[in-house]
Each structure stands twice: as structure tokens, then as C-alpha cells.
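Ticket #4471: structure output looks truncated?

Reporter: J.K.
Steps to reproduce: submitted the chain below (179 residues) through the standard prediction queue, then opened the result file.
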Amino acid sequence: VRYGSFLEKLSVSDSRRTKIASVITDVFVQRNMASRDISAGKATAVTMEEMTSTKYLRQQLIGVLNNEELSEFDGFELNYQKVQLRNNFNSQLSLTAPALSEVNREIVLAILMKHMGAGQTKVSSSGGDAVNESQRQLQALMNARREIISQLDQEQMQETEKFLNRIQSGLMTSQSMNE
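Returned output as attached by the reporter:
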């Protein structure tokens, strides 16, 4: 379902589309098997983390997509991640800051996506690198907070702080688990 629109947009023959869809399906089958192996103690979470990455799927698609199609895949993935992140932020914002006006909600979302959105520089998520990534995200949140403060009045900022504090708490918990 996730890749249906990507497959539809490709200018390829039906047989190539079927072959590409088959590669994507195979990766999802591999992920399902890895998940079962983890539950049975036959594999590690590292294996699953690697298999669920976009990079892994992209590697599998290299054999069936040309460079232009791979670029389309990269664009699709980046946009998908941005949409998912924005929807997640919007949902959490609605729950934690219900008194925030619609106009200010859009301002907060735009600023958060600018500073913390998908496509920002990432660090791999093992050991010290995960701590560095958490620190980068905390810094991005602080930068976003400074910009949001300049855009909202005090009452709306107090409402927004509930949401920002929740994000900060999650990031700090993540960081402490990786130290």
C-alpha cells in the first residue's frame, strides 16, 4: 500500500512494474521473517533495524530500477517521511496544545519541519552515534523553540510549550537510554 502511488507514477511497462513490486514485496516478506526470528531469539534487533531501513530497500531496488527511477524513489521516500512526521507532529500538537489557534498551529508545524523535518542530517543509531543524534535533535528543537517564541504571543507560546516540552522529554529519554 505504501508504495502503490510510487509504482503507479513510474513510466514503465506492466511487466517491469510487476517485477519492481515483487522486489518490494520480497523485502516486506524478509522483514516479516526477521521479526519472527527476533521473537524466537534467532536474530537480533540490529538485523531488523537494517532491514527496515529505506537504504536496505533501495539497495534491493538497484537491480530493477535505473538511475532516474532510483531518484524518483528517493524523492518519494523523502516526501513520505516528511508527510508522516508532519502528521505525527500535528496529532501530538492537537493533543497537548488544544488551545493553540489554527494559524499558530501552522506556524509551529512549519518551524518544526524546518528544523526537525525528515531529510535533516542523520547519524546512525548505534552506541555513541545515537547519543550524538539525540543531541542534534535536542539542538534542533531549541533552535525551533527560539524561532517559535519570536512568532507567537505569550499565551499561545505557553500552550505551545506543553507540546515542545513533551518532545524534549522524549528526546532526553531516548538519549539517556543510549548513553
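Triage note (M.O.): checked the attachment and the full C-alpha cell line is present. Residues 67-96 form the longest helix (30 residues).
Status: closed, working as intended.
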